[in-house]
Amino acid sequence: MTPAYAELHCLSNFSFQRGASSAEELFERAARLGYHALAITDECTLAGIVRAWHASQQTGISLIVGSEFRIEGGPKFVALVENLLGYQALCRLITRARRRAAKGQYRLLHEDLDESLEGLLAIWLPKRADEDADGHWLQARFPERLWLGVELHRGAGDQARLQALQALASRMGIAAVACGDVHMHARGRRALQDCMTAIRHHSTVMASGAHLYPNGERHLRTRDDLAGLYPEPLLAETLRIAARCHFDFAQLQYQYPHELVPAEHDAASWLRVLVEEGMQWRWPDGVSASIRKQLDHEVRLISELEYESYFLTVHDIVRFARERGILCQGRGSAANSAVCYALGITEIDPTQANLLFERFISRERNEPPDIDVDFEHDRREEVIQYIFSRYGRQRAALTAVASTYHASGAIRDIAKVLGLTPELIDTLAGCCGRWSDRIPDEERLREAGFDPASPWLHRILVLAGELIGFPRHLSQHPGGFVISEHALETLVPVENASMPERTVIQWDKDDLDRVGLLKVDILSLGMLSALRRCFALIERYRGITWTLASLPKEDRATYEMISRADTVGVFQIESRAQMAMLPRLRPKTFYDLVIQVAIVRPGPNQGDMVHPYLRRRNGEERVVYPSDELQPVFERTLGVPLFQEQVMQLAIIAADYTPGEADELRRAMAAWKRHGGLEPHRKRLTERMLAKGYEQAFITRIFEQIKGFGSYGFPESHAASFALLTYASSWLKCHEPAAYACALINSWPMGFYNPDQILQDARRHSLEIRPVDACRSDWDCTLEASEGEQPAIRLGLRLIRGFRQADAHRMTEARQGGPFMDVEDLCKRAALDKRARASLADGGALHSLTGHRHQARWTIAGIEPQLPLFANVVTPEPSASLPPPSVGEDLLADYASLGTTLGPHPLALLRQELRARRCRSSRELTELAQGRLVSVAGVVIGRQRPQTASGVIFVTLEDEFGMINVIVWHDLAERQRRVLLNARLLRVDGNLEVASGVRHVIAGRLSDLTPLLTGLDVRSRDFQ
Amino acid sequence: MLWACILLPQLALDGVLRTRSDADTPLALLTGTSQRRTLKVVNPAARALGLKPGQTLRAALALTNDFATAEYDLTEIDRSLQLLAAWAYGFSSQVSLRYPRCLLMEVGASLDLFGPWPRFEARLRQELDTLGFRHRITAASNPAAARALANSHERLAVTEDTSLRAALEALPVAHCGLSPDATTGLIRMGIKNLKHLLSMSRDSLARRFPAEVLVQLDTLLGHRALALDFYSPPDLFDARVELNFEVTSHQALLFPLHRLIGDLAIYLTARDSGVQQFDLILEHRDRSETRVPVGLLNAERDPDMLLEVTRGRLEHLQLPSPVLALRLVARDLPAFTPTARGLFDKRPQQSLSRDQLCERLRARLGDDAVQSVAALADHRPECSGLFQPIGQTGHDEQIAALPETGPRPAWLLPKPIPLNESSVRILSGPERIESGWWDGDDIRRDYYQIETRKGQVGWAYRDLRGDGRLYLHGWFS
C-alpha cells in the first residue's frame, strides 16, 4: 500500500545557489504525488515563503513554514513553525542570525537558541550517528519538540546509516522521522542543481566533483519509492509533525503605527479633523456641495476599511517634507482622491479633473490603498532618515526586491561553470538584450559565430533557460517602506542591506500585497527638484510666489508650445517619441496631457493602439465602441483602451470578472513576462466575451494589449499625477523660460537632455546666456537683470568639471568683502588650492581677471604659496608672450571643462566645410518638401532602439540651428553598425519624410565625420 | 660618443605576432578583470576594423568578432626586451633599458667593428626585421636627445652639436621627454615646441614647474650628463610563446619552436656561451604542463643543430592534450668550446637518476608505456582516476578534495562486462550514481557489491536507462 507522506525538509530557489526549483514547481509536484503537506525550509530565510504560501493555496497542499539552519560550530537542524508564537520566534531567529552577518550571509550562534523557541519544532540532522552531545543540547532547547531526521539518498551506506540513526534516536528517547533534503522538484533538475553548486563554489562543474551530489535523489520522490527506502514508522512520523503545524499567514496581526493620533482622538476622528483643516486650506472660499459629498464618502470608506492609519502615516511624511520645503507629489490609485488633495498628499484638484477618481479604493475590491510619493531626488534621503528616526529601526524598514536572473546573467553564470573562456562568455551573453528574459534565437547565435547545433551550446542554453526568472539575491527597494506598530521582526525577518545603516525585510512588494501589509513608496523625482528651484528663482527675481496648485490652469500659450513639440526639458513629453507625437495629438486640455503621457509607452504601442486613438481624435476614423455597456469605460479615450484601469473594468463588465478576479488580472499583467500565468485569463476572457457576443478580433486585440501592458502598463492614476508635473513644467518653460532652464541645469543630472542641450535650446529661444565668471558666478546658475523681459542666465561654477562646491562657497563669501583685484587676490581670499585654480582657468572663469585661457593657466601656475613673512611681497615677473587659443581650441576646451560652449556651435565652425560636402542644416531642412533626397550632418546626441520597433534605431543629430531626427532601418543599421555606434559627428544621406509637421530623414547611407570634429583645434585657425 | 636609440613602438604586439605565422591578422591584446576585459593595444589591421585601445572587449565584439586576442602580459613584454637587450649586447657593451620600450646603446666605440653608422644602422634594422620587431632608430651625441628625437623621427642621426640644437628646437613639447603633467601644463599654456619653451625665462619656468623640467632641458642639450645603468646578460634563458589556437599536431609546433630556438641561439651568441641541457615545456588548458628535457653531449649553440635535436625529442612525444603555449628554459649554460673530440674519448660511467631512468625507459618503450596514476574528484567511477605521463602532477585542485563515496574497487575494468545474474550474489547496494551530464557522458546507475560463486567480490551496476542487466565494472581484490 502506498503510504501517506509529508515532506518536512525542502529548499526552494530562495535558498540561493542551492534550491533548483521554484515553490510553484514544488507544490505542483507534491500535489501530483499526493503528498499530505510540504514544508518549505529555505536556509535561514523566509524570503520565498509568501510565494510558497500562494502556491500552497493554488494546489491545496498545506504549507508548513520552516527554515534550515546550521549553527556556527554546531549542529544542523530544520525549524518548523507550529503556531503564531513559533512563527514569531522563527522570524526573530533569522533576524538575529542575518543582522549579525554581511548582506546575503548569516551567523547563527548557540546563544541565539537561549531565547524562547516556543511554537517551533525542530528536526535535527546529524552528520554522523555519534554526535549525541549536539542532540542533547538541542533537546534541552526543544523539549518534547525534537526529532531526528533520517535522510536516505541511495548511497552505499544507507542501511548502516539508517540503523545507526535509529539507535541514536532510541538512545536519546526521541522519534526518528523521514526527510528528503529536497533541492529540486524533479530529477530532471539535477544538471541545474549541479550548476548552482558550482556557482556557489566559484568553480566549474568539472572541478566541483567533491561538492556535487552523487545522484539526483534530492527531489520530491514518489511515495512508493519512499516506501522502499524508509521503514513505515519513519514515514508515519511525518504526518504527526505535519498535524501539529497549523500556522497560517492569515493569523498575522499587522497594525499601522498609532502614535500619530493625539491622545484625545482615535484614528478616525483625527483623520476627520485633518481633512477639515485641509478643506479650509485648499478651498479658502468654501467647499462646494459635491466636493463635500465626495470627501464624506471617501472618509467613510476609509474608516470602514480601517485604513485611517495608513493615510495618517502618509500625511505625516508629506507634512514633514512640506515643513522642510521639500517638494513632493503623491500618485497611485488612492492618491487621486479628494482626501489626499485635502491632506496635501497630491496637488491634483478634484474639481479640475473630476473624471479621474473612479478608481479609488473600493469596498468590493478590498484592495489595499496604494500611494507612492515622489520627492525631490536630492532631498529624499532627509525623508528616509525622518522615517527611521520617527519610528525607529525596529519598526520601519525598506522592502526587498528579489533580483531575478535575466537571460544574459543566466547565460553568464551557466557558461562560466561549464568552463567557457571569458571572451566566449562575453560574446554569448552579448547575444541577449539587456533585460531580455529569452534565450537568444539561432540566427543571433549564428551571427555571433556560434553553432547552435553543438551539444555544449545546447546544454548551456537549456540550463540558462531553466535559470531565467530564478531569484539570485535580495536587494533593497529604492524606497518602499514598511512601518509597523510592533517590532517588524515579529512579522517578517529583517536583514542587512548593502548600504550601511539600512535594513531590509525579506519580502518584496508582491509578498506584502498577499499578506496584507501596507507600504509607502518614498520615491525620488528630479523634476520636483527642478520645479522647486524654479519657483525659488522666480520668487527671488520677480517676487512672485508660485506653487504647483496655484499655477494658472489650462493656459493656451502653454498648450500651443506643447503642440509645436517645443518641449526640450519638459517632464515626460521631451523624448524623441513624445515629440513626434505632440504635433499630431495637439493637447488642448489637462486630460489630453494625461493621455499623451500614457500613449507613448511601449505598452499601448505593442498592443497596436496608439494610432487608432490618433486617427479617431483627428476625425480620420469613426469613434465606435465594442458594445454599449463598454461605452462609459472607453468614452474618454474615444473607444481605445489606453489605461490599466480600463482593462480591469472591461474584464468586470464584459467578462463578468469579480473585482477580486480583476485584481488578479492586474497582477498577472504585471508579472506574466516573468512568471507566465496569463493563459487562464486569456481563456476565461475569450470564452466569456464570445458568449456575450463580442467579436473574436476585438478580443484578440484587447488581449495583445494586455500583454503589452505587462511591463509598462500605465495606470491612469499615475498618468494623471505625472501630467500635472508635465503641465507645470510646460507652463514654466513657456512663461519663465530663463528661470526654468536655469533650474533644470541646477538640478542636473535628470531628464533626457544635458545642460549643453538645454542651453542650446535656450539660445535658440533668444535667451541671453552669460559665461562662468569667477567674479560673478555662484555655484548654481543664477538669473541676472537684462534689458529684455526675460532675465539673463549666468552660468554657475557647478558647470566646471571637477570644481568643488565648498570652493565655490568660499568664493561667493570672499566676494562679499569687495571685488577681486586679480587672480592672486582671488586665490588668496577664497583659499583656493591648485586643483580649484586649475579648474577655474580651464573653465574660462578667469577671463575677466587675466585674459584668455593660456594666459590664465600661466598666471595661476605662477601663484606661489604665501609665506607669512612675505605676505604682501609681490615678486615681479617678466611678462610671458603666449598666443591666444584658436576658436577651435576654445571650443574643445569649453566642452572639456564645461560640457557646453557659449561660442559658436561646433557645426557653425564646420558649416563651410559641410556645405562643400552638400550637407544641409536643420534650418534648411524645414523648407524642403516630402520625399526629397537630402544630406545632413550633425553631432549625435541620441541613439535609441525602442523595444517595440523591430530593430529600428532613432538617431538625433544636433547642429547650430536645432535637431534633426533620423530613422535608421534594421538592415542599414546592421550593415553600417560601426559608423552608427562610433560616429560623434554623423553624415546621413537619405529621404526626407514629412508628416503632420514632423520631419525625419530616412537614412540610406551613413558616414563618420568625427575627424572633422576632433581636428578642430588644429585646423580652426582658418576661422579666426 | 654616439648614442643610438632603438624605439620599439609595437613591442607588446610584436612579441605576440612574431610567434605566429599569420602576422597580418587583426590582433588585440587584452587586459582587465574577467568581468571587464578591455583592449590594451591593437595592431593596424585591428585598428582598420574600428578597434581602439581602451575599448571594452564587449564593445569591440559588438563591432566585429573577426580578430584574434591575446593577453597583454607584462612579463612577456619584459622577456622580449631582455631578448633584445641580449641581442644588442652583441654590438655594444653599453646597452641601457632606462626608457620603456626602448634600447639605448653607445655605438661610437663600435663603429670600428661594424662600419660607419649608416652601414651599422642598416645591419641593426635588418636583424630587427628578422627578429620581428618594428623599430625606429635615431642617433645623437647624448642619449636623452637620441631618445627624444625618436619620438618625432623614424630615422635620424645628428652628429654635430649645432645641428642637434636645431633638430631639438623643432620638437613638439609632447616629444621632449617631460613628465605628462608638465607636458600638458605647457601645451595648455599655448607653448607648442621646444623652441618656444627655451625662449621662456628660466626663473618663470622654475616658479611654475618642478625642477625636472629644467633638468631635462639641460640634459637634452647635453649640458648635463645622464646617469645610466648598463645591461648585463643574465645566467638563465627563459622564453615563452603563447599559441593563438589549440595545437594538436607536432607539425604546428615547429614554427614557434623555431622562434624559440632562434632566440636561444641569439642569446647564447651574445653572451658567448653554449647550452648543454634545457627543458621544453608544453602548456595545456586543462592539465598540467608537459616537460620535455633535452640533453646534449656537449655545449652547443648552433640553431639548426639545437632545433634538430629538440624536434627529434618532440616527435617521440604523444601530445597528451592540445598545446596552448611553449616555453623554453635553459639554466645550464657552460662556456662554448667548439667540439674537438679526442680519439680515445672515454664516456663517464652513467649512474641514472629516477628522471633519467624514466627518460631512458620512455625513449626505449615509448611515451605511453611509462605512466603514473592520479585520482580525480568525479562521481563517475570511470572518470575518478587517470593515468598520466610521469612527472606530471595535474588537477591539484581536484585531488585535494575528493568526494566521500562508498567502497571502490582498486581494479576497474576498462569496459564493463555483462554478468549472468544467477551466477552471483548481491552483497550490498544499491548505491545510486547519477553524474557527468556536462561532457555528454552522463551516467545513471545503481551499483552493487556482488560475490561470484568462486568467492570473488566484484562491483557491478544496473543502468537505470538500460536493459536492466547487471554489468561487472571492477574487482575488489
Explain what the structure shows.
- The complex is a heterodimer of chains A (1024) and B (477).
- Chain A is of the alpha/beta class.
- Among the domains of chain A are: 6-251, TIM Barrel (Alpha-Beta Barrel), CATH 3.20.20; 406-468; 602-608 and 635-713, no CATH class; 768-898, no CATH class; 906-1023, Beta Barrel (OB fold (Dihydrolipoamide Acetyltransferase, E2P)).
- Helix content of chain A is 44%, strand content 13%.
- Chain A contains 44 helices and 22 strands.
- In chain A, the strands form five sheets. Chain A has a seven-stranded mixed beta sheet.
- In chain A, strand 19 (953-958) and strand 20 form a beta hairpin.
- Chain A is globular and about 100 Å long.
- Mean pLDDT of chain A is 87; it is low at 354-358, 603-609 and 1018-1024.
- In chain B, 31% of the residues are buried.
- Chain B has 477 residues and is α+β, with helices and mostly antiparallel strands.
- The model of chain B is unreliable at 339-343, 345-350 and 394-398 (pLDDT under 50).
- Chain B is elongated and about 105 Å long.
- Among the domains of chain B are: 3-25 and 67-74 and 93-220, no CATH class; 237-338, DNA polymerase, Y-family, little finger domain (Dna Ligase, domain 1), CATH 3.30.1490.100; 409-476, no CATH class.
- Classes of the chains: A alpha/beta (1024), B alpha+beta (477).
